[in-house]
Specification:
- This protein is mostly helical.
- The protein has one domain.
- The chain has 15 helices and 7 strands.
- The protein has a 3-stranded antiparallel β-sheet with strand order 5-7-6. Strands 1-4 form a two-stranded antiparallel sheet. It has a two-stranded antiparallel sheet with strand order 2-3.
- Helix 4 crosses helix 6.
Length: 380
């Protein structure tokens, strides 16, 4: 065979391989977009179920919050370790799920398994700021259920929820918080075990909670964030990522222009200090869509992934994230903002690819079936 024929054959093989690779990429992207759309639909449905409970809670907040406490302070040890964890590869135990979770800070350990415990705890912290001055020890003067009860203030009380189910929701959350030394409840199997529970500080010290003073260097969120119900609407992963960004932004050693230039949370930092898993950190995309952060990714990742060429070690750079809470209109309920965003068929980061794959039309409307002639025609 002549060298010319050989080169032609190799060129054809290379073209075929490249085409197959692109087809596979299109298939994977199509699958990811469809799954993301289904997740948005499920979340909208869940928000519809939770809407009444959230409305009840935020109505109470507006009644209790007179604006005297504009800052809600959260102790740093809740979300960041005092000492960095070793690298995962340096310790076989850290490579196990149990070893990972047990060495995380309180926040990311708490959300390892799905629950509403974080929602309840943040609601308790917010309410404590409204009712107690810095340094005053917390007192529990509310029932768990009933009018103005904790279950209502924590966004658990909906019209169609029975008293039994409501009690279960609250006690499950309290039991989980007790496991993490965030509240104290009665002895197991004791009567009224969860009544008049005691709120503990965020750092696992088992000290009765008191509102931090301004001098403690706590992480600060605006009270409007809670009054609008954002802590009720965001997922655990979104809330953990937002708090990590806030902590990194507000660190004393953080660059002075962090508010404008943003902060980076590279993978090693997320692992060693925050225990924030990659799956949880991907929630930054939703936070950006909801307007709570802004983000610039110098690596131009697609759905958080890098191409092979971008994986060279000296090129890896984390996204720079800017906290935008100061720009948010907290007079608008968080559930309205999130539902309006989720009504769009795909997230902004997927729009261009979805149009190219003919999954949405030029008006950003979802195509129930790709048009005839599309490589994805016939797919469900």
């Amino acid at each position: 065979m002549s060298s010319k024929r050989l080169r032609l054959g190799l060129d054809i093989e290379a073209a075929r391989a490249a085409t197959e690779k692109m087809d596979k990429l299109d298939q994977d992207t199509t699958k990811a977009i469809r799954e993301a759309r289904e997740a948005r639909i499920r979340r909208l449905e869940q928000l519809d179920v939770q809407a009444d409970a959230m409305k009840r809670a935020t109505s109470k907040y507006r009644r209790f919050d007179n604006g005297d406490h504009p800052d809600i302070r959260i102790r740093r040890r809740f979300l960041r370790l005092a000492t960095a964890r070793p690298r995962r590869e340096s310790n076989p135990r850290l490579k196990t799920v149990r070893g990972d979770v047990d060495t995380r800070p309180v926040l990311t350990s708490l959300i390892h398994r799905p629950s509403n415990a974080l929602q309840v705890y943040l609601s308790l912290l917010y309410t404590a700021h409204l009712e107690f001055e810095p340094g005053d020890r917390w007192k529990n003067e509310r029932p768990n259920n009933g009018v103005d009860g904790w279950s209502e203030l924590c966004g658990l009380l909906a019209l169609d929820v029975s008293n039994r189910e409501l009690n279960l929701r609250m006690t499950r959350a309290l039991a989980k918080l007790a496991e993490h030394d965030l509240v104290r409840v009665g002895a197991r199997r004791s009567e009224h075990r969860f009544d008049r529970f005691t709120l503990f500080c965020e750092d696992r010290s088992r000290k009765r909670y008191f509102v931090p003073s301004e001098e403690t260097g706590a992480v600060i969120l605006p009270a409007g964030f809670f009054m609008a119900g954002w802590h009720l609407v965001l997922t655990n992963e979104e809330m953990a990522t937002l708090l990590a960004v806030a902590e990194q932004t507000q660190r004393p050693r953080s660059r002075k222009d962090a508010d404008e230039a943003g902060v980076a949370l590279p993978q090693l930092t997320r692992w060693q200090w925050y225990g924030l898993a990659p799956e949880a950190f991907s929630a930054r995309h939703e936070l950006q869509e909801f307007g709570l952060i802004d983000m610039f990714d110098p690596m131009d990742r697609t759905n958080g992934k890098l191409s092979e060429n971008q994986r060279q070690k000296d090129l890896l750079r984390a996204p720079r994230i800017t906290l935008k809470l100061g720009d948010v209109d907290f007079s608008r309920p968080a559930i309205e903002v999130v539902k309006a965003k989720l009504q769009k068929p795909v997230a902004p980061r997927w729009e261009d690819r979805a149009i190219a794959l003919q999954l949405i039309d030029n008006n950003r409307q979802w195509r129930e079936r790709p048009p005839m002639g599309s490589p994805h025609h016939g797919e469900k």
